[in-house]
Design brief:
- This protein is about 45% helix and about 25% strand.
- It is α/β, with parallel strands linked by helices and about 240 residues long.
- It has two domains: about 5-165, Vaccinia Virus protein VP39 (Rossmann fold, 3-Layer(aba) Sandwich), CATH 3.40.50; about 185-235.
- A seven-stranded mixed sheet has the order 3-2-1-4-5-7-6, with helices on both faces.
- Helix 4 (about 95-105) links the parallel strand 4 and strand 5.
- Helix 4 (about 95-105) runs parallel beside helix 5 and helix 7 (about 185-205) packs antiparallel against helix 8.
- It is elongated and about 60 Å long.
- The protein binds S-adenosylmethionine.
- S-adenosylmethionine binds next to strand 2, strand 4 and helix 4.
Length: about 240
């Protein structure tokens, strides 16, 4: 039976090059690899899961979809489930940016031979962008979309010897997304800005200390970075 996946996962699938192989780390139900094989995006996939429940769901899904010849479900932590050179694309989707960063850092020796990373942090995309920049992965595209009142970012990277350093605002907002004037981008950052402004007001009332001053400075930086991009897009 052909599988239907969320708009978010479909957008992730758009960035997986056709004709290669993929590993989906933290695959849960293995919806993404099943969709990619059924739609001839990849011929071979590995679905990695660290937790037993999702691992079993993935096994069931692959079996019910009769895709056991194309998709291997493996139980293990992060990139431990793949060998170097085994797949051309690695996807890590639906987790926090810091967890994605940790998985990449811990398993970076497994990324030799990987030609593309498709990463979809639910929050904290800046941690992912920083890791990519520090580890010679060049951002080649980004996307942002809204589904069920949640806003998701997708970051796509390829290995490169010439990685252009991102400034702090680009790390936070995304160098591609900054220039896109996407309604989901404006909505996300307006929401965040409202939160930061609320926190800033509370910090103004707190007893002064170096720590409070640092937090205020960081929030002001973020508010100004977002304002300048959103205002530029509106004018
Ligand atoms: N990737 C799917 C998606 O985007 O819809 C599932 C996302 S689900 C919210 C996150 C999954 O990542 C969970 O099934 C969890 O067990 C798994 N996970 C968390 N940490 C992991 C790790 N270090 N290695 C492998 N899987 C992990």
């Amino acid at each position: 039976m052909s599988i239907s996946i969320s708009k978010r996962l479909m957008k992730v699938a758009d960035y997986i090059p056709t004709g290669g192989s993929m590993a989906d780390i933290g695959s849960d139900h293995a919806y993404l690899p099943c969709y990619c094989v059924q739609n001839s995006i990849v011929t071979k996939a590995i679905a990695g899961e660290v937790n037993d429940g999702p691992y079993r769901s993935a096994c069931t899904q692959v079996k019910n979809s009769e895709l056991e010849g194309n998709i291997e479900v493996r139980l293990g932590d992060g990139l431990d489930v793949i060998a170097s050179g085994e797949v051309s694309t690695v996807v890590i989707a639906g987790m926090g940016g810091q967890l994605i960063q940790n998985i990449l850092e811990k398993g970076k020796n497994k990324l030799t031979g990987v030609q593309r990373l498709v990463l979809q942090p639910n929050v904290g995309a800046r941690f992912v962008r920083s890791w990519l920049q520090e580890n010679n992965w060049k951002l080649i595209n980004e996307a942002i979309l809204e589904e069920d009142d949640k806003i998701y970012e997708i970051v796509v990277a390829e290995p490169s010897d010439t990685v252009k350093p991102m400034d702090k605002a680009e790390l936070l907002l995304g160098p591609f997304l900054i220039n896109e004037n996407n309604p989901a981008f404006k909505k996300k950052w307006k929401r965040e800005m409202d939160n930061w402004e609320r926190v800033l007001t509370q910090l103004e009332r707190a007893l002064p200390s170096n720590e409070i001053e640092d937090k205020k400075k960081e929030l002001l930086f973020r508010i100004n970075a977002v304002k300048s991009v959103v205002d530029k897009a509106t004018n």
